[in-house]
Amino acid sequence: MKLLDLFCGAGGASAGYAAAGFEVHGVDLKHGKQYPYTYVRADVLDVLRDKNYLDQFDVIHASPPCQTHSITQHLRNAQGKTTSKLDLIPETRAALIESGKPYIIENVPGSPLINPIQLCGSSFGLKVRRHRLFESNLQLLGSVCLHNEQGRPVGVYGSLRDNIPNGGKTAESIDEARLAMGIPWAIRSELVEAIPPAYTFWLGKQIIDLI
Predict the structure, then answer these.
(1) pLDDT single digits (tens) 124-144
(2) CATH number of the domain where residue 191 is located
(3) What are phi and psi of 38, to 5 degrees?
(4) Are 37 and 18 in contact (CB under 8 A)?
């Protein structure tokens, strides 16, 4: 089966779906040099208007920009920084529903997803927690957090080598960040926004059984 990964970044989500058994194609506006599967550099919203292109896929995954909803927005505001990112969730959802395909929309806690499930890195033996929400028109199962079993987590965001009061720490190096996420090919700026492949492997296996 073929899966289209929209806003694919470096391909963390794509890798999980590929491991689950999908032929994966990715679309993003970035250069895609590290992306390990078939890649199209294009505006995702333009791609979503191309019904003939979408028809070749069995499933569509989308990870619209999340800076609008991320809790780190407060940190950016305090630092006097801004983001030009728009909230593309409503437009993306409308296009996915119009496509008639099984779909998944991924975003951060606090984002306006509809009846989402949550996945946590601690559920999959990862050192990151990285809670992420997934909306779908399929009946998918989330995961149970295992924070106590995980111990002190490793964060892959902000600066390297930061201690988090009453919490974890950020990765000491790019190698530790890659290991924590399970994405050995990505550069640091890509890891900050990526989804661990373990998440989409979990989802991909369920999707294959459902469709």
Answers:
(1) 999 999 999 999 999 999 999
(2) 3.40.50
(3) -60, 130
(4) yes
